[in-house]
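Per your request, structure below.
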């Protein structure tokens, strides 16, 4: 049996004044008794998770407590907290509680989390005018009853993995409700009164026994719904249901854990390859226009299909073949010129003076190219290459030309712009799939921050304090 030692707590917090302590974190201490907490009169936040507590009687004197977590203990009752009138957040999940009656006097509660206990019935919560979060997942609750009839402030309700067979009209008064989790129950239909919950954004009905559309027809009244899960129900096997739901709920973003945009894309295109090909062709066409390449002829425009895209497959093959032949001819010409040119060995025969002079001339050329990175000769060759639609082979082979001049210019900028567009599209797709903010790989030489890096993660707000909860099973 491990008792709390107030002297040790003071030493750990570098003070001898118990009134100076407002927050204590005492998790994983194997505590079975916390009676010594009575000296901490100004304590407002207390974390006692992962201990061996069987009673909360030692908290009676902590009347200033606002936040209390006793998750993962051995509690069978909440006796001792009745007088904590300032408490706004209570998390007593993963214990052995069989009743929640002790929380009735706590009218200031904003969040009550009692998941993974042995509670079979919900007490009336009429007096809790500020309660916005109630989590009772994994408790043997058969009915909600009238416990929530007057709780208009409720925003998040979780009854996942209970034994509910219906919700009847129990949520009629929860007009501020935004998130409702009813997965892994025995629900057969949704009541018409659910239409009163106009602000509902997330609804999880996974793994119930809903069979027909008429059993969930009330969904058409929930125009603000963004996330709907019907997986694990017999009704989810019908492909027609997906189309009907998307038609009746145009604002829906995620259906059965999959982004709606994916469904729309599959209907519009027969496959992803077609969409990818069209995107690549558009990028190539834009690059050709900027590089000054010849425009598509009238025959290409006549090949336009019903989907508004032009089939360039035949013309592209001819154009590529022509480019390859031109390049091969030029390479053959360069090879012949190199064979005819005097070799270095022939130069050596003229004497060491000639070699020294050649080295001096080469050094002067290199220094000149470094000082003048954009020589008239190079600019002229680049303009000529633009007009002809291709780079000059002799320029690429010239060892005196700096690397930046060879591969800089409009072509690279256009290509980088196209890649940025593709990166942005990929980030958006990943955001829809994962329903999370994701970041693209950083480019070292990018002057402007890409779209993903401009996104900022919102600060985490504790449950019950007004922040949106995660879309996961609690």
């Amino acid at each position: 049996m491990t008792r709390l030692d107030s002297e040790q707590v003071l030493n750990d917090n570098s003070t001898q004044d118990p009134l100076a302590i407002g927050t204590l974190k005492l998790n994983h201490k194997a505590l079975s008794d916390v009676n010594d907490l009575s000296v901490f009169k100004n304590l407002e936040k207390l974390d006692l998770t992962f201990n061996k507590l069987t009673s909360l009687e030692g908290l009676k004197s902590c009347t200033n407590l606002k936040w209390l977590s006793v998750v993962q203990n051995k509690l069978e009752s909440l006796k001792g907290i009745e007088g904590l009138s300032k408490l706004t957040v209570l998390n007593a999940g993963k214990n052995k509680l069989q009743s929640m009656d002790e929380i009735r006097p706590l009218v200031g509660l904003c969040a009550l989390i009692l998941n993974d206990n042995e509670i079979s019935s919900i007490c009336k919560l009429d007096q809790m005018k500020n309660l916005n979060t109630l989590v009772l997942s994994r408790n043997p609750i058969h009915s909600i009853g009238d416990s929530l009839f007057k709780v208009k402030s409720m925003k998040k309700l979780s009854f996942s993995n209970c034994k509910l067979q219906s919700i009847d009209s129990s949520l009629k008064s929860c007009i501020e409700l935004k998130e409702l989790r009813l997965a892994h129950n025995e629900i057969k239909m949704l009541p018409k009164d659910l239409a009163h919950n106009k602000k509902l954004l997330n609804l999880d009905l996974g793994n119930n026994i809903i069979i027909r559309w008429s059993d969930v027809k009330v969904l058409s009244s929930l125009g603000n719904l963004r996330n709907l899960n019907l997986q694990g129900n017999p009704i989810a096997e019908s492909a027609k249901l997906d189309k009907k739901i998307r038609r009746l709920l145009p604002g829906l973003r995620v259906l059965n854990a999959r982004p709606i945009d994916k469904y729309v894309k599959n209907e519009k295109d027969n496959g992803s390859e077609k969409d990818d090909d069209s995107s690549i062709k558009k990028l190539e066409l834009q690059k050709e226009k900027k590089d000054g390449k010849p425009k598509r002829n009238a025959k290409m425009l006549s090949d336009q299909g019903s989907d508004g895209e032009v089939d360039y497959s035949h013309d592209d093959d001819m154009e590529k073949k022509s480019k390859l032949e031109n390049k091969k001819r030029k390479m053959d010409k360069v090879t012949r010129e190199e064979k005819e040119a005097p070799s270095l060995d022939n130069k050596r025969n003229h004497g060491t003076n000639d070699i020294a002079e050649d080295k001096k001339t080469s050094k002067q050329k290199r220094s000149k190219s470094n000082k003048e990175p954009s020589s008239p000769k190079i600019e002229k060759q680049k303009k000529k290459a633009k007009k002809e639609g291709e780079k000059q082979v002799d320029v690429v082979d010239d060892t005196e030309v700096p690397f930046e001049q060879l591969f800089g210019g409009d072509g690279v900028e256009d290509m980088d712009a196209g890649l940025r567009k593709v990166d942005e599209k990929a980030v958006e797709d990943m955001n829809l799939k994962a329903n999370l903010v994701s970041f693209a790989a950083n480019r070292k030489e990018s002057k402007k921050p890409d779209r993903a890096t401009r996104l900022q993660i919102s600060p985490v707000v504790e449950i019950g304090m007004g922040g949106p909860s995660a879309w996961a099973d609690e």
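DSSP finds 13 helices and twelve strands in the chain.

Regards,
D.
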